[in-house]
Write a structure and sequence with these properties.
Layout: E1 2-11, E2 14-24, E3 28-33, H1 40-48, E4 55-60, E5 63-64, E6 75-78, H2 90-101, H3 108-114, H4 130-142, E7 148-152, H5 160-175, E8 179-183, H6 187-193, E9 196-201, E10 204-210, H7 211-218, H8 223-236
Parallel strand pairs: 3-8, 3-9, 6-7, 7-8
Antiparallel strand pairs: 1-2, 1-4, 4-5, 9-10
């Protein structure tokens, strides 16, 4: 389990995180949703160890990640905008990651085949389309079979078939009881991919919704409308 306790982070006079308390349960997809500037990026960077909070704790399986960098080897992270080395071929990017981790990536070949990347392995990243870069970024994040998966806008640029493949691999990770976090601005995508939605606003968690329970309550065809109503209500009370 990923547990966040009273997390606070301030940049000059801006309070980016204002006492975040949250539990991310394994075996479910947790979606982080909220407007720009709500604190999502700061929270993700804090989990990755790229930002040091001013107060509070982040625990993975009960272990505080502060000053404990070994936990990063358990994380697979896909950023919103893939920054691939332009002077490397796709196959060299995957090999570089294996060299850095000093291990072979057990899911590399399976994911390359799933996302039809074989024909791009000998191409340089600056020759790739945006959608193909997105696929390379997904494979890079998942190929080591991480225990904690963090995906930022993962389906942007994917065609419908590749989106179906992405959903299948996501379900595989869920069946293996992984911790999966998905960041998205698109409620319809959240509805399709997420089990628990966390809505953030002004550095705070304002709403946590079990989408399976919500579907039972209002019907699966009405989930997006209900989520929009809840979010508009929160925005109206800021």
């Amino acid at each position: 389990m990923l547990k966040i306790v009273n997390l606070k982070k301030k940049y000059n006079e801006v309070l980016a995180l204002d006492g975040i308390n949250l539990q991310v349960v394994p075996g479910r997809v947790t979606g982080f949703v909220g407007p720009n500037g709500c604190g999502k990026s700061t929270l993700i960077k804090s989990i990755l160890g790229l930002v040091i909070p001013d107060e509070g704790e982040i625990l993975i399986d009960g272990v505080n990640i502060k000053n404990n960098y070994e936990y990063r080897s358990r994380i697979g992270y896909m950023p919103q905008h893939p920054a691939l080395p332009e002077n490397l071929m796709v196959k060299e990017i995957f090999s570089l990651l294996e060299d850095l981790r000093e291990q072979d990536a057990p899911l590399k070949n399976e994911l390359i085949e799933l996302f039809n990347l074989d024909k791009y392995l000998n191409m340089y990243s600056n020759q790739l389309s945006g959608g193909t870069k997105q696929k390379v970024s997904i494979v890079s994040a998942l190929m080591f079979n991480p225990e904690v998966v963090i995906l930022d806008e993962p389906t942007v640029g994917l065609d419908p078939l590749q989106t179906i493949h992405f959903k299948k691999i996501l379900q595989k990770f869920i069946s293996q009881n992984k911790i999966v976090i998905l960041v998205s601005h698109v409620l319809s995508e959240v509805e399709q991919l997420v089990n628990d939605m966390v809505f953030m606003l002004e550095g705070r968690v304002r709403l946590v919704t079990d989408l399976n329970a919500l579907a039972s309550e209002v019907g699966s065809e009405n989930i997006t409308q209900k989520l929009e109503e809840k979010i508009l209500h929160l925005l109206g009370n800021v």
